Amino acid sequence: MANSEKVPIPEEPSKNNEALLRRIVRKIDYRLNPLMLACYTLQFVDKVLLNYANIMGLSKDVGMNGSQFSWLATAFFIVFSVAQLPGGYFLARYPVNVYLGCNMVLCGISLACTSACTNYASLVACRVFLAIGESSIAPSLSLVTMKWYTREESSKRYGFWYTGLGWGQIIGGLLSFGFQHVPHGAFGSWRGMFLTLGLVNLLVAAWSFVIPDNPASATFLDAEEREWCTRRLLLANKTAPNARRFNWRQAFRSLQDVAVWLIFLISALCSLLSGAITTFSSTLITGFGYSPEHAALLNIPSGAVTIISTLLATYFDRQVPRSLAILILVAPSITGGALMSFAHGKAASLVGIWLINTVTPILIIAMSWAQANCAGHTKRVVYNAMVMIAFGVGNICGPQTFRAKQAPTYRSATITILVATALAGVVTVILLFIYIFRNRRMSRRDTLEDVDAEVHTIANQTDLDMPTFTYVY
Fold it and tell me: Is the overall model pTM greater than 0.85, yes or no?
């Protein structure tokens, strides 16, 4: 879309079209949500398998020693973070379904090749390519959600596919438990686990290629439904759903927004927690005296906590402001960090590990909050990239808080988890006040009285440029 092109804002659809709306949204849900859940579940299983593989003999088989395991996780997220920048650009330029499918293919090949690794260098190489592939999964799913749903509808869909984190923990634990009972032949132990998951990723990649890029190209909708869907999304989201041009002005304007950086900080702090627990929870549990088989099973409740907290986050989004939802989820995570740091007895520490997982859906709330409070296709892409870079930064720092000499308690790591959780709550309150201030400032502007809908250049504007934009809390 050229910079000079003006996009007319359509009139709001009549309430008489509510039946049509329900029919369209139901069709979209059936086509997209199962795929998005499958993609996000698989990308998280990819991550937790390294956690389980470490207690299944991975370190011994590839000759890892000392802190190499921590650096293996860190290297993954360094590449993951760096890949967000070119990934965001490509995502803005190419059809999201094709880009998602290509990255799922790369993930599948990388995982399958991991099963053949015999030394540390080959394992690092596979993790690097896996990081490149996974770096664009969540941004792609976020963009799919915002291309197909209004701001009011999107939170429920974000919550649905984000439960994949919990399902990933559960599936990963069951896979680990199952493969620990397979005879250690060519497909035994952790090698068979990685090969199996790689093949499943390739199947889901093929599925990704067949979904449409946007409502205007959806063959499962008729002509009337496609036009109506496109018009209502343009009205509700202030962004054309079929936009694909990367606007450098919007990109630089986005980076000048303090709200972008506060969302970045919230996401990084929460990701530090989840990254530490994702990589080291099995190691912590075996340090309590449990066997590797029991450690795999005792990690399953973490997945259940993630699913429940994600569903609660989705419910909260319809009932309470997103900022309050974040603060509600931070509270049990602080309790979990305190139990891990100061409680005596393995039962209390185990409960602490489970409670930490209530922080997991905060990342998707932050992403949903960011998307709801921005306008412009490029700014949405930049927001996605910033949240995912923050995710990578947090996961880079998280594993590095664990020092081998502090085993099995890892006291400095557990205290860091506690402090990071509390800071995430503080930053959330600061961001809330910024949005409140902006809305009050906007309400006093004379320009709010009239905006010419026919010449409103939606494609080229961010929320900071729109006097009628209202921020949600």
Answer: no
